[in-house]
Task: inverse folding
């Protein structure tokens, strides 16, 4: 939905959002979807599901995001006035998930340093995208 909100703001032309900013957000969300799909697929494969079917379920878990983006863009007239609130809600939801689920899980195993390195690399990639593209 965050990607759709950004593109809706760009299409409306009065929300102070450039096409480049919307594309950068879409790239960031797409990068985030790769491990998200893996988190869905890997346990299914370990439980005996075929590789192809596990991959399909991983892909299907992320398909809701572009669908929500398209719906949001189609509802641009409704979305633009509440754009700041929707962006704040999307950011807050992601921060909540990271704090509530990912950080505790990252520190539960023997290789917790790997998680810290992953977060650091992810943060660095997003900052590079922010500086280089927007």
Result:
């Amino acid at each position: 939905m965050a990607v759709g909100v950004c593109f809706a703001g760009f299409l409306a032309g009065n929300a102070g959002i450039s096409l480049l900013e919307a594309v950068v957000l879409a790239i960031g969300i797409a990068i985030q979807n790769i491990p998200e799909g893996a988190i869905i697929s890997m346990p299914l494969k370990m439980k005996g599901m075929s590789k192809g079917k596990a991959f399909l379920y991983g892909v299907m878990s992320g398909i809701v995001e572009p669908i929500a983006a398209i719906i949001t863009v189609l509802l641009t007239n409704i979305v633009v006035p509440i754009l700041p609130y929707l962006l704040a809600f999307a950011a807050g939801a992601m921060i909540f998930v990271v704090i509530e689920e990912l950080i505790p899980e990252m520190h539960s195993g023997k290789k917790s340093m790997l998680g810290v390195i992953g977060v650091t690399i992810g943060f660095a990639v997003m900052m590079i995208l922010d500086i280089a593209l927007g």
Summary: The chain is about 85% helix and 0% strand. The CA atoms of residues 21 and 134 lie 6 Å apart. Residues 19-46 form the longest helix (28 residues). The chain has a mean pLDDT of 84.
